[in-house]
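Hi R.,

Here are the chain sequences for the assembly we discussed:
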Amino acid sequence: MGLPDVLPILIIGLYFFGTALYVLGSALRNERLKVAALSLGGAGFALHALDLGGQLLNANASPDALTSGRFLFCLLGFGILLIFLLLWWRFKMRFLAVVALPLALVFYATADATSGIKATLPPMLTGLFFLLHIGTLFASMAMLAMGAGAGAAFLHLEKRIKMKASLKKMQQDMPSLDTFDKVNHWVIVGGFPLYAIGLISGFIWAWLSSKRVFSGDPKEILALVMLVLYAYLFHQRLAYGWRGRKPAVLVIGVFLLMIVSMLGINFLVPTTFHGFKP
Amino acid sequence: MDKQIILVGLNHRTASVDVREKFALTNVENFEQGLLAACPLREVLALSTCNRVEVLVVADGERAAGLDLADAVLHHWAMACEGPIDTLRQHTYAHRGLAAVTHLFSVAASLDSMIMGEPQILGQLKKSYRNAVERGTAHVIINRLLHKSFSVAKRVRTETAIASSAVSISYAAVELAKKIFGELSGKTAMLVGAGEMAELAATHLLSAGIDKLLICNRTYARAQELARTMHGESVFFEDMVERLPGVDIIISSTGSPTAIIRAKDIRGVLKKRRNRAMFFIDIAVPRDIDPDVNSLDNVYLYDIDDLKEVVEENMSARQHEAVKARSIVDQETEAFATWLKSLALQPTITDLLGRAEEVGQRELAKTLKRLGPVDDDTREALEVLVRSMAHKLLHEPICFLKRRTREEGSAERFIDVTRRIFNLDGDAAHPDAHLDRRSPDTEESLDCEECCPDAEPQSTPGDRVKPQ
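And here is the predicted structure of the full complex:
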């Protein structure tokens, strides 16, 4: 059994134990457990990067590797952790590990399960397509995931403050409502343009490849719904100064639609372009 | 050298406010000096605050034999306050020996305070001790006892979470504001009305870093006066709602019989401030702020009862931590008892000779290591040399101590100094110990590496001492 065979098991193991320890550490308010969980997650992330690098190198020999389900989900899981690290560094949002680690685990495990399955993409859609379509969409999705985590934390803390819970029940190391709202702001302001670019580039390439912008694909329909909601959120936040509860709830809603789109439609619903077929 | 340590006192639990007021010591200096003159005591320290009076006395066992010192202190106290001795007896407690030590440690660690864990009492105790030292009523035992009580207080604060949660209403308000806004720098607060508790909350917010304080009062002159003392800006009461869009935290404590801030006003204010969060603290009874305000998005309202609930839960958490704190107090009382026993001459001589021999043996071991292999006779001769040097060197100091024990009153001072000079109790000296006694221009390093380098020198084959 060589390294390429052991690597996915190792990464899944590290993410799994990292997730379990972090959840346990949060429940028990045990700092040591949390640090151990983040160390495991960090090791998983490093190996994850190694795995992605290997897949990119393989892409030179077989261009199909970049359109495989394995690579795409692997990239999404990696992107989520990357955005989490940025939020940790910028806003001290370490607690978002409770969202980032399980999502990285789910997407990496999905990637591993989809080995040998690939999206049927026109061969011309490589290179720039990845940057514009997959890269931007995945970055915005990773931001959405973190925004949903911050939104859930906002709703939790806001409820406690509104219900006059004791200070003891509001975790000491939990950031303030303002900080959660700031994350929501950046997720919407940064995520929406990326999502829009990703979607528009997809439509352009669809037109270039098959002279048809919209093919009635369920994933395309859901993506359009998400785009409309995202645009509404973007507008309300910037033009009307929406803050707090409403944008938090809406970001969680858009994130849930994203999960349905990525895991539900890709695997369960027969689609034209976006389904993964063996 | 049998010492009696007695602590007599009253506090918020044993005496009501009027009794505490009656028996508060207004002139502690006279009280201490008078007590020393009236009773056969060696040392006295008195602490008088609004919640307690504690009188700590130390006497020689022989001199005070047959006397009820606690009662003598009560008599002097009642006389000094011109109050009835029976009332005083009824409301006071008396602790003797190690019970007195435990009580003092508990007081210093604020385990006996009205609000357990609040650190003010430690500052008051330090001040009383400094005054007693300056007046010359505190000597060896009280010096040691008070220094120890300060270190017990520090241990309790660092090793337990007794002071970690908010137990005052104004502090709880600041903690909640931090949960909403994070950092308070750049935020603006408005004080509506001028109650004492609201002022205290505003002071806490200012020290937590808010940028600007607006003060609004029906009587504009009062608002101006407060604005001057709190470095804020006064606002006309009629302009209050107009100024709210620029305010993040509002503390209200007017005597108005009806609400002065309504939910419909705040809806408009929120629009103007683009839904930025607002925190209302309503300390007034009856309430100043319409409770419906709390149902608005991005608005948080706490009234006096809500804040009290927050505080009470934290109080129970402190009670839990107090168990740990009391075990620290017990440990330190035991350590103090050991020190007290060592104040007799014989244990000090034994410790002194033991320390000298220990240092001699350690240095001899280093020398033997550098010398290389030596025969048994040489080793034995060197051991005898080291031991007899240690004993001869300490002969004169020991004779000096023996002579002092025959004199009245100075023995334990010299014994204590000797114990401290040679660090016979193994106490760690903090860099800021006795800082109050050092003048800034004589600050110098306490490091003694230059005079007694303990590090083993790097030996090379060339500088190895050759056996003769």
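Residues 304-342 of chain B form the longest helix (39 residues). Residues 3-159 of chain B form a domain with the Beta Polymerase; domain 2 fold (CATH 3.30.460.30).

Let me know if anything looks off.

Best,
T.
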